[in-house]
Amino acid sequence: MSTIVNSWNEWDPLKHVIVGRADDCHIPPEEPALDAKVPEDSDMRGQWGRRPQDSIDRANELLDNFASMLASRGIEVDRPTPIDFSLPAITPDFQTESQFGCMPPRDVLLTVGSEILEATMSYRCRWFEYLCYRPLMQKYWNEDPNFRHEAAPKPRLTDSDYHPDYLSEKIGVEKRLQWAAEKFFVTTEEEPLFDAADVLRFGKDLVVQHGFTTNLKGIEWIRRHFPDHRVHAVNFPGDPYPIHIDATFTPLRPGLILNNPQRRLPEEQRRMFNDNGWEIVDAAQPAHNAPPALCYSSVWLSMNVLVLDPKTVCVEKSEVYQAEQMDKLGMNVIEVELRDAYAFGGGLHCCTADVYREGGLEDYFPKLAG
Ligand code: DAV
Fold this sequence. Notes:
There is one protein chain. This protein is α/β, with parallel strands linked by helices. It has one domain (14-357): L-arginine/glycine Amidinotransferase, Chain A, CATH 3.75.10.10. It has seven helices and 19 strands. The chain has helices at residues 32-37, 53-72, 134-143, 173-181, 216-225, 267-275, 320-328; strands at residues 14-19, 26-27, 49-50, 76-78, 89-90, 95-96, 109-112, 115-118, 148-151, 199-202, 205-209, 230-234, 249-253, 256-259, 279-282, 306-309, 312-316, 332-336, 352-357. α5 (216-225) links the parallel β11 and β12 (230-234). The termini are far apart. It binds delta-amino valeric acid. Delta-amino valeric acid binds next to loops.
């Protein structure tokens, strides 16, 4: 079957998707933006190198099962081609001793309509990660005459991209929360930076989180790049480690969004949703009180779900409270076991990237001007 790239939002019926792989995944060496995200009490501080093979095999087993389940529902599934992540990443501007992996395509690839945009990324160890997806991008390019393959300007990622205040080992959660409220993040405004997982697609509107991995220039770059869209910067002051919007703000269908109750959208930023009849509800509590070992992400991967259509959602199998809430909200829940793969880059939303969802470009916020 020949590919068509088309996806305008997070909920229309999914027909073609990329699912990541855990192969050769590394815990990268220290670098400024990554250190700012690793929680101060994390077991990952101070260690780096290839992850143990048995954990890679287990994560791949779960990712393969997820891919098979999607395929059994008639969804076409593609997989990336891992590069050698043990190689250092070296450019004229920086050097770091190893790379990361390709479990979370959502972080790298932003699909908007017939376009797939490779994000700048903001960690040095992830600078070359787009290479894992190039075989697929070439295939889509060959098969779909309307596919627009785009890449945002590669950033230089010199030390001037990172605030030195964040390099301290002991900042403390209180200080981090104060900085997050003041929108003082680890990345500076030296050049545009964004990860694709900071962007949510709502048809004509793109909602982008300003935080550690996406700066204001990155958001401005996205605005100029998509001149027919309205681009909205949001931030979530309750998150001491704000990277990626998809464990914080989760649209399920037109008119309904889950919001992390520890990271509520500020009042003035709610207006566009309220004025256009959207409901923002607190997400259920996670089932776990700590993330798995050697995991960057928080327990809120509970709400990192993959919507298959406006009535059907994939929820991680152990996240019983989240599943129960979905059921009450009228969603059919598909349980998917993925927790043992979380450490490789995230949950069910992170480990996927859209290629095709049915439906076209719509305006879900008609009361907004422009
Ligand atoms: O809550 O740690 C994880 C998002 C991963 N894409 C968090 C954010």
